Amino acid sequence: GRKPRQVLWNLTKSAWEENTNSKNSINHWSLSSNGSACLNSSEGILKLNKNGNGSINIVHDPWRPVPAIGGHLSPNPGEVDRNELDMRSDIAIFNSSKIDEDLHLEGTPILALTANADKEGFDLCIAISIFEPHLNKATQISTGFLRVLGKEAKEPLKRQVICQPMLADLYKNQRLRVSIAGSAWPAIGINPGDPKIPCGHS
Fold first, then answer.
1. What is the DSSP string of the chain?
2. What is the tens place of the pLDDT at every residue in 106-115?
């Protein structure tokens, strides 16, 4: 019999498209910061096909968690503008430069980074957005989550955060953004930083 057609929802075109499985849609991005990506919205840089560098510190306050908006886990799922949320000082943001030519983004984004905490537990909550500075808008297109518990949380080890599969087109003069936070409440229970205490509300 014939192989069934596989169609995917294009988030930016709001239309169904054939799955291309094209290698042309695979892009490698890296993060770069001198340490101020949480405090300065233009300091963290997202680079296309270049090496990243630097490090950041994210201060997670379990009594003032970053709220979950949009995406696949939020109480209000779907497309959302997260630019105002990204201005919080406990979210690190990394923006690319303006895209020179249209980019097709298709697949499952994976963020690989070295991370550790001063407690025996932490969360990495990732959002990928299309940022349009002239509109002051960041349209969230994928989210991902990783929980680390135990003594290894204190070790600077390589971690991978697998985000939700996506299909989107990034157009000329737009930018891509990666946001990193330590919580996404109430979609994700608050990580207390102690494996003996159940994760839950703040």
1. -PPPP-EEEETTTTEEEE----GGG---EEEEESS-TTT-TTTSEEEESS--EE-------TTSPPBP-SBTTSSS-B--B-HHHHTSTTEEEEEPPPPSS-EEEEE--EEEEEE--SSSEEEEEEEEEEEEGGGTEEEEEEEEEEEEESGGGGS-EEEEEEBPPEEEEEPTT-EEEEEEES--BTTSPBP-S-TTS--B--
2. 999 999 999 9
